[in-house]
Design a protein that fits this description.
It is a single chain. The protein is built from six helices and 18 strands. The protein is α+β, with helices and mostly antiparallel strands. The protein has two domains: 138 residues, Sandwich (Immunoglobulin-like), CATH 2.60.40.10; 142 residues, no CATH class. A hairpin with a 2-residue loop joins strand 6 and strand 7.
């Protein structure tokens, strides 16, 4: 049975801040901020395990600054699991598809508890078997199948890496798929098909004269239903489910929260060994640089610790 969508918590709540978006650790707890221009009410749901169906707390983000709903929940720590449910109009003909029965991933989440799987079409806001198709409303609760977002501690020792001074004209760029580059045994790496496996091949790239790498998507992606039905996968990853979440299948870590740190460990040696790197992922691992630029929806040239954008940014959230 779905949780009643109304405030139910004993935790201390304050207004918090509208920026940065996402879940941010503070001395008091965690600040939550999510963008929605048309929502009537936004609820934060806290969970105590990845497979939990019922939340431990339901907290309404009652404070709105422009189109951002936000609140600070005191006493929370890194590792807290959460998601959102949003109440608003369901008028598909006007482009509004709010469905308060569906648990939503934080569009700024930096880690998820697992991959998205569309079991029994629960991820859909509508009933595909209805004569009205996508104009119908599915009132089934999707919480059992939606991965929870995870509060992540951004602290990471970058060991004093400095910006590269090479101009774009000096770059020799190598476009590469993180997994495919080392997946075969012929790569000779200890961690094939992973972020750490790529690190092992950096000397090889430098020997070739490469001084910049451009990665195919390395943020968490969704494997399309028709591919799953054929027991295939989305190899290239062009179907992002979390722009700020490192793709879990490329990590050597099994703990979801540790995968973000694993990918940070991967990015740092690129910069220390004079390789520029380009991908959405690199921008999300440099939180200190986020104050000066918005992340790209496609690719961003990373010259740590600054970001140069090559494409327009996405809207702040998937919840419109």
């Amino acid at each position: 049975m779905a949780a009643t969508l109304q405030q139910a918590t004993n935790k201390k709540i304050s207004q918090g801040l509208f920026y940065p978006l996402g879940a941010t650790l503070t001395p008091a707890g965690v600040n939550f901020a999510v963008y929605s221009q048309n929502a009537r009410e936004v609820f934060l749901l806290l969970f105590d395990s990845a497979d939990a169906v019922q939340p431990t707390d339901v907290i309404q983000l009652a404070t709105r600054t422009k189109y951002v709903r936000h609140a600070s929940v005191h006493g929370l720590k890194a590792g807290q699991l959460y998601g959102y449910k949003v109440r608003g109009d369901f008028r598909p003909w006007d482009g509004l598809r709010f469905n308060e029965h569906k648990l939503l991933i934080d569009p700024y989440a930096k880690a998820l508890t697992g991959k998205c799987r569309n079991t029994d079409n629960l991820l859909l806001a509508y009933d595909p078997n209805s004569p009205e198709r996508d104009k119908s409303l599915d009132t089934r609760d999707s919480t059992p199948v939606v991965p929870k977002s995870i509060v992540v501690d951004d602290a990471f020792d970058w060991q004093g890496d400095a910006p590269s001074l090479r101009s774009l004209e000096e770059l020799i760029i190598y476009e590469v798929h993180v997994k495919g580059f080392t997946a075969d045994a012929s790569s000779g790496v200890k961690h094939p098909g992973t972020y750490l496996g790529f690190i092992e091949k950096i000397p090889y790239l430098k020997k070739l004269g490469i001084n910049a790498v451009e990665f195919l998507p390395v943020h968490e992606f969704y494997i399309d239903d028709f591919l799953m039905n054929k027991k295939l996968t989305n190899y290239r990853g062009y179907n992002t489910i979390g722009f700020f979440t490192p793709e879990s299948s490329y990590s050597t870590q099994t703990s979801p929260g540790a995968r973000s740190r694993n990918s940070s460990t991967w990015c740092a040696p690129c910069t220390r060994r004079a390789l520029k790197s380009s991908s959405m992922w690199c921008s999300i691992t440099r939180p200190r640089a986020m104050n000066s630029a918005r992340p790209s929806a496609l690719k961003a040239w990373i010259i740590p610790p600054t970001i140069r954008l090559r494409a327009r940014s996405p809207s702040p959230a998937a919840i419109t």
